[in-house]
Structures are given as C-alpha cells and as structure tokens.
Input
Amino acid sequence: MAKKDKEDNEFRPTGTVTVLVIFVITLIAIWGTIYMILVGRGGTL
Amino acid sequence: MKQYQVSAAEKKFIGSHILVAVLALAVGSLFGPLQAFEHAGWDFYVYLKPLIKSYYQGLTVHGVLNALVWTTFFIMGFLTFNVIFGLKRPLKNPVLNKVGFWMMVVGVVVAAIPILANEATVLFTFYPPLKANWAFYVGLTLVVVGSWVEGWGLFMTYADWRKENKNERTPFIAFASLVTVLLWQICTLGVAVEILTMLLPWSLGLIEGVDPQLARTYFWFTGHPLVYFWLLPAYISWYAMLPKQAGGGKMFSDTLARLAFWIFLVLSTPLGFHHQYVDPGVPPAWKFIHAILTFGVFFPSMMTAFTVIASLEYGARKNGGKGALGWIGKLNWSDPSVASQLLAGILFFFGGIGGLANASYNVNLVLHNTAFVPGHFHLTVATAVTLSFTGISYWLVPYLTGRKLWQPKWATIQAWVWFVGMIVFSNSMHVLGLLGAPRRVPLNLAPYVPAEWNSRLFQVGLGGAILFVSGLIYLVVIYKTATNKERVETEVEVPIAESMQDPDSGPIWLDRWSPWVYGALALIVIVYGPVLFDLIKNIALTSPGFRVW
Output
C-alpha cells in the first residue's frame, strides 16, 4: 500500500499538460480562423 | 475482491433498455447516410416512396430515433446499472422503474406512428409553427415522463442507502448518475411546459394558434442541457471505468470529478439563449449573460479533460509509457471498449472547439443554421456519446447476457471505421458551414449550390457511407454477442477504477445535495425568469400551424 501511495504521490501528469496545451493552441487557431471569416465578411451596423 | 452481484431480473431490466436503444439506433442509422448521400447527389429517397415520402421525413426519423430514443434508453439503462452497482443494493421499488420504462416504450411507439405516417415531419426539434399530429407530442411526453418515473425510482433507492449510510461518501458512479438524472429532471421542465401548455392543446384543436418564440425558448431550456444529459454518462465511464480498462489506471482526482458534475448541474440549464442569438424576442443583454454562462461550462469540461487524461496517463506510464505523448501508445488499444472511448474522446476535442465557436455571440453569426452545426453535433452526440456508448456496450452486453463478446477484433475495427468516417463527414460539414451551406436543406435540389461546395458535398456522402458500414458492423457484433453460444467462464468484471485519493478525504460539501440544487434552481430563475415572464405576459398565440411537407 505504501509503495502504491508513493507511486501516486510521485506521479506528475506532464503528458496531460502537453495534450491540453495542444488543445488550447488548436482552439485558438480554429476560433481565430472563424473570427477572421466573420471580420472578412464585414460589419453590418 | 468479489464484486456486487446484480440480480438476473435487474440485468434483464437493464438489458431491456439496451435492446430498445440498439433497435432505435439500427432503424435511425439507416436514415443518417441517406441525408449524406442526398448531399452528394445520390438521392435514394426516390426509391423509398411511398414508405418514406421525403428527405425531411427521413431526417425526422434519424433525429428522433438516434438523438432522442437511442440516447435516452441507453442512458437510463446505464444509469440504473450504475446506481444499483455503485450503491450495492437493489432498486427500492422495481415496479416503479418498470412503469417508467414501459411508459417510455409506449411513448416511442405512439410517437413513431405519426412519424412513419408522414404526419409528424417536424424534425427532432419540432419547432412550431410546424405542426405535428397530436400523437407525436403525446409520445414524446410519455418518453420524458417515463424517464422521470425511472429517475424517481433511482432517487428512492439512493434515499434508502443514505439512511443506512449516513456518514459514507456516495460511491462515485452512483453519485454521478444521480446528478445526471437530476439534471434531466430539471431541464426537461422546458419541453414539458412547451408540449403540455401549447403544442398538445394546439394539435388537438383546443387552441387556434401558437407562439413560436415562447415555444423556442421553452425548447432550448431543455435543448442544451440535453447535450449534458447525453455527455455525462459517457463522462462517468471516462472518469471511473476507462482508466481501469485502458491499463490499470486510477481516477486522478475524486474531488475534481465530483466538483465537475456539480458545476455541470448548476450551469448546464441557464444558457439556452446561446441557441437563440438570432431570435428577435430575446433582449441582447440576456443573450450575452447566457453566452458568459455557456463559457462557464468550459471549466468543468476542462476539469474533466484534465482528470480523465491524467488518469489514463497514470496507467500508461505504469505500463512503461514514456515521453510527452508516447505514453498514449501504451494504452490498451486492442480492447474494443477502450479503443471506442479513446477515439470518441479524441474527436470530442474538436467537438468542444466547435461548440465554443457556436457559443460565441459574434462568431455564431458565421455559423448559425449552417452545416457547421450538424458537423459539430455529429462530433458530440454522434461520436463522443455514441461511440462511448457502443464501447460501453462491448463489456456491458457480455456482462448482462453472460455471453462472450463476438469477434472483439471486429468490434475494434468498428470503432476505427466510425472514427475515419466521422473525420471525413464532419470535417466536410464544418467546411461547408463556413462556406455558407445551410443546414436542414436537401442541397441536391438547391439551385444555388456553387461549384466550390461540390467536392465537400461528395465527402459528406463518402463519410456517410463509411459511417454506415461501421453502424452495420456494430449491429452484427452486438447481435452475434447477444446470441453467442459461447458463454463467459466467470462473470464479466465491471471495470471500476479506484481513486488515487481516498474519497472520504474530499470536502464533505461535495456530497451534500441541497446547496447545489438550490443554486441551480436560483440561477435558472435569475437568468430565465425575467425573459420568460415577459414572453408569457406578452404571449401571442396567433401563429397557425404549417404543414410544409
């Protein structure tokens, strides 16, 4: 049990952080692309 | 450690839900590819007359059976299992749950009759002033009320458990299932009021007209949290089962998981106006508030992504996984249940991104009512949810029937074929939407389709064909499993990942219902109350019904 707990405590989810950073970058890129389409179509005041 | 034994009668009851769900999926999925083929210029509807009379009738069958019936039956079956297994006790009042189940079954039949008779070609959103036969509304009401009754049975079971376990933390799968049931009970009040106060009396001729704006507002009170009713059961599996299946992982944080479910309960209903950004009857300030709350749901979503991925990473690294991303290869990809859910999760990343674009008050103007929207929800309900449910069924059906999964390799192939088909289909739908292609339109007949859409429309058809093949493989695998003569040697083990953290060490307020329930109700009253009050005060039951099919 003690060994298990040690393993748990030492675990750092660095891969998870990498995946989520990729997600956020993709999110910004896609959202930004759609936003540029919106801007490209012009304002309708 | 020996697992809790679910009785044969309970297994049969849960299995009945799965059976109805799979039958609905089977019929509904026949019509999905027909929409895609139509876009590609291959119109099979002409061969289906007089049985199916139009593209829109097919789209209604597809939407109602796949988005409403397949999901609701599978979910109620899976949640019932989770409550029984999680609390380690039988249902308090199995007759009540059976009454609920049969109400749902009768409701499906009653709604199916007018749909098949082309008397309810109103799509699964049934927006008035499109007017369906009264039986369609009665059928939908029975399905919703039946699911409420089943939910009450689950709450009664929980109340009994709580009496005997005053100081215990609710086991996670039972806790999360009950939150999901409660979310459903709250959010479906919208369609219940819509149908009972307007659509049903209108369809019966008791009132002459309908107020489409008020009806849409009621609908989206239910419509968006419906997405979380679909997603949360998949999340339960991703949080508490998938890590164990994927390589002996543990749930990274019991506290984060519980907190995420509570936030979903509080935030998932008071944000329906993000589906009504272009509706004229809702003041912009309220739309903006709903937009902010919609972005609030991003937080529990990211908490879920973090916890689930970390749980998977923990198991993968224990199995020798290395590197920033290399550990992903150490997950148990050969298990069809795992492969299905991992692939569902990968595509859900893009579904989440599309969802945020849809929810953005300004960017939505580019996407609203375009093919982008069905492209998006085929990544969410048709992949994150459906592929997870099919993955769950790959262990649940053998567990319930005591029969071995037929040809696991084919089950794994099915998941990959769906993944590939959905990439082709959904990507082309997203792009078409950005190019301005409208949704809910038989584009093969539209005279305004520019040449630049053609290659994408072909890809929609191609993707639909690949998805159709995957659907067929799934049905064969499940049928052959349910009738497999080869039985499992010992009962299938229910995959429950233990938590890294002792659940008892988490904050006690995460196991208290009243603050969250009152908070959810208060927020709904605050952000829906003024607009609903205004719409009801100025109700205009003036629109006649239209039959445009």
About this structure: Chain A has a mean pLDDT of 86.
